[in-house]
Amino acid sequence: MGNLLQNREGSATTHLTPHAFKGKQKQIGQGRQREMFTHFVSLPLATYPELNKNLEAFQNSILGNNNNDKILPVKFQNNLSQMGIEKSIFVSPKTFHLTVVMLKLENSESVIRAQNILKSISSNVRQALKNRPVFIRLKGLECMNGSLDKTRVLYAPVEEVGHEGRLLNACHVIIDAFENAGFAGKDAKSRLKLHATVMNASYRRDKSKKMDTFDAREIHKEFGNKDWGTYLIREAHISQRFKYDPNGYFHCCASLPFPHK
Predict the structure, then answer these.
(1) How far apart, in whole angstroms, are the C-alpha atoms of residue 208 and residue 210?
(2) Which of 82, 146, 170, 236 has a CB 3.0–4.6 Å from the CB of 128, allowing a cystine?
(3) What are the E-state strand segments in the chain?
(4) How far, in Å, CA of 158 to CA of 138, rounded?
(5) pTM for the structure as a whole
(6) Are 118 and 182 in contact (CB under 8 A)?
(7) C-alpha angle with apex 213: 207 to 218, nearest 5 degrees?
(8) C-alpha neighbours within 13 Å on the C-beta side of residue 128
């Protein structure tokens, strides 16, 4: 996993996307503590139509919903149930993103403060990026903290084009600002691991199955070297969990443009 933009091997920024939410904040485990998060800083990738099509084709080829004759379906569809694979554990292309840091914004005043914080660090973020556009490449598939036969999270590793570390530096600026305000979880910067989740067992709708993992070995065999493409990081959002804008992406409370030219 040497291509991952990260600080510490095996650490992760946690983000769950339930299919339904009725006003109750759910607990997310981070390390040994459980903290309540309402928002997060995201780097949206859902805006790229070609990436959306790539993700849809990936999902369809596994689930057997393939309408494109040019894409051969994976040959293990009859065994999906045994492997613990179902449609609900795939990430929706409409919400595809990288997570920078989870946030606890418990009231409207906190949201306003967070909005002001994001605005105040704009010049520092641009400086960290050296006032130049930053591109990432997504290639391959890896599992998070486990083995492929008992996978909780399957993700595409993130590599900064040019390997200058500018994106990681910009993320550190963002995390420091929210940590200083008391809105981020403890040691958020040391646990940063930019990754693009494509499947997550915690999204499973049918909780009666009591399956918190899935078998990703055949998927990895088929798509382990897949090139998902190269993409410009256009902006950072303060995204609200469980709430979505008309385009299907997480509700944007504030945005910070990155250099485009």
Answers:
(1) 5
(2) 170
(3) 5-6, 27-30, 33-36, 39-44, 97-103, 135-139, 142-143, 153-160, 193-200, 227-232, 235-244, 250-257
(4) 5
(5) 0.84
(6) no
(7) 125
(8) 18
